[in-house]
Amino acid sequence: MNFRVILLVSMIFIFAAVFGVMSYSGTDKIEGISLDQAYSQGNVVITQSTYAGTVPHVVTVKNNGKDTVNVEKGELLKSNDSQDLVTAENKEITPQSTANITAYCFEPGQRAYAGTKLESVGNASDAVKEIIANSNPSDVQNATDAQLKIWTIFAGGDLNIYTGEPVALANKQNIQFSKLKKDANTAKSEVMAEFGVTEDKIASLNQTTTNSSSDLSDMWNNFSDWVNGLTGI
């Protein structure tokens, strides 16, 4: 038998086994589809529900599709007219139903406008996800501390509290700017300590990661290109 054929069959067998294991382990045995998938299919409508200064914010997700939509902590929601958000809870949204999802502000320089439509644009960085996982959105002080840490990471350690959402937060919670500045500095110190970075490396904590389904898709496409190149198909 031709050596190239033997090699090709062997590689296909090995890749199929690895791909199958990774696909199975990446599903976490959760039925349904991700928010990203549902949005790309046009089956969900995501709407900003709360006004500027609210911590945490609330977004409404309407599932118009036939599959359950799995919202996970750390998913980014973007708007050109309102602030960007990052989800702060896990929730399953059944077909033809609507759910409220708590979320933190992601972009401090922009203010939130209730009623604005949002786009699902992937996941936040691991550091932001960790801050969200360790936070308690139902506790205002705890949630505010987490919010300041997220802003600190987004701003690369140079958070301007005199603009956008920080100003709205100060007004809504009746916080003096001197205290907000002190709290922001504390948040920066805690971020550096928690993630073992210096001030000039805080921006690196905002590097986002691709999801496993995208990685698997890219892997399959690369393998297919290799097979085509080998066989000439």
State Rg.
21 Å
Instruction: Report the order of strands and helices.
Output: HEHEEEEEEEEHHHHH
Poorly predicted ranges (pLDDT <50, ≥5 residues)? 21-29, 210-215
What is the CATH C level class, in words?
A: Mainly Beta
Share of residues in helices: 40-55%
The outline comes out as: globular
In which order are the strands of the major sheet placed? 2-3-8-6-5-9
For the sheet with most strands, the description reads: 6 strands, antiparallel, barrel
Q: What is the name of the CATH architecture?
A: Sandwich
SSE-based structural type: alpha+beta
Task: Please report which band the strand proportion falls in: under 5%, 5-15%, 15-25%, 25-35%, 35-45% or over 45%.
Answer: 15-25%
Quantity of strands, as a count = 9
| Number of DSSP helical runs | 7
- Estimate the mean pLDDT confidence: 86
Question: What's the N-to-C terminus distance?
Answer: 19 Å
Structure description:
With about 230 residues, this protein is of the alpha+beta class. It is about 45% helix and about 20% strand. It has a single domain, classed as Immunoglobulin-like (Sandwich). It is built from 7 helices and 9 strands, in the order αβαββββββββααααα. A hairpin with an 8-residue loop joins strand 2 and strand 3. Helix 1 packs antiparallel against helix 7 and helix 4 crosses helix 6.
